[in-house]
Amino acid sequence: MITKAQRLQQTLSGSKRTQNLLKFPENLDSEGTANIIRFSINLPSGSSYIANGDYKKAIDPETGDTQTSTYRSASARGSLARRFSGNYVRTTTKIDLFMPPNVTTSYQSDWSQEDLGVLGSTVEAGSGLAGIESWDDASKAWDVVKRTLKESGIRTAASAVQAISPLNFETLRKTASSTLVNPYTEVMFNGVQNRTFSFTFKMIPQNEKEQRAVKNIVDEFKFNRAPEFKYGNQTNYMLFPSEFDIQFLNRQGPNPWLFKISTCALTNFTVNYSPEGQYASHEDGSPFATEITVEFTELEALTKERHEQGY
């Protein structure tokens, strides 16, 4: 005999992955300006959950082709992973939620200071040789090179003595000569950092339908954060977890006033069943409130070309 609790569990988990749209709250599309955030799910093309029909592939209505993420394209440049467009496929499953209280993005570039030291001084001295037009010019350039080599020799000797002596000979050299060696510090560009995003949603269901929706949304994020074994019972290899495409939408479609987000990996998922500081539940055990935090890392480092596209 199936108990009430077992029947409830079947209702909650039976077909949630075949649903095309999970949303909260129930009247999400009819309130205010309909500003929402949408999470579309992309699975590895070899996933057993596609083959078994748990997820359906999204089809481009114009071309009839299987859709992929906004990140992957056969014509993409700058990344081998981006060119492997067949690795992931877009599914028809979407999660729509109300706009989070914090909608921010940060564009960080990686610059670092590099000390060229002797190399910098030698290059600078040598660069004067290119403009030699007379013996006087050559003589001046040679004097610079000799001074550079002499000073670098003193620095090398001081470093060698420093290595075998407790005395600070480098400080002694500076004090005796009242000279600080130009470190030839240059600020070098090393690349841009992939953006990260964190969204928090506090959901307080008003009825049983919304309670089930919250449960299914939690399960969907949790499920797609995880990898899967590639060959069934063989555990040698794992398929990567799902990827997510994130959009800010309003009644007209994608919101042009906000930034676009390229395809992301879900790097952290947190569920809090006591956001008020104390756990409380209904008679059936379902919590009064559930708070989730989803943290993502964008898969691509953005270039000028992508910023022109609104990212």
Can you tell me about this structure?
This protein is of the alpha+beta class. It has two domains: 4-108 and 194-308, no CATH class; 111-190, no CATH class. It contains eight helices and twelve strands. The strands form three sheets. Strands 1, 2, 3, 6, 9, 10, 11 and 12 form an eight-stranded mixed sheet that branches. A two-stranded antiparallel sheet has the order 4-5. A two-stranded antiparallel sheet has the order 7-8. α4 packs antiparallel against α5 (135-164). The relative contact order is 0.17. The model has no long low-confidence stretch (mean pLDDT 82).
Concise account of the structure shown:
It is built from 8 helices and 12 strands.
Please tag this protein with its features.
two-stranded antiparallel ribbon; eight-stranded mixed beta sheet; 2 domains; alpha+beta
SSE blueprint and pairings:
Layout: H1 4-13, E1 21-24, E2 36-44, H2 48-51, H3 80-83, E3 88-98, E4 109-115, H4 118-127, H5 135-164, H6 169-177, E5 185-192, E6 196-203, H7 208-225, E7 228-231, E8 234-239, E9 243-250, E10 253-254, E11 264-272, E12 290-298, H8 304-308
Parallel strand pairs: 1-3
Antiparallel strand pairs: 2-3, 2-9, 4-5, 6-12, 7-8, 9-10, 9-11, 11-12
Helix pairs in contact: 4-5
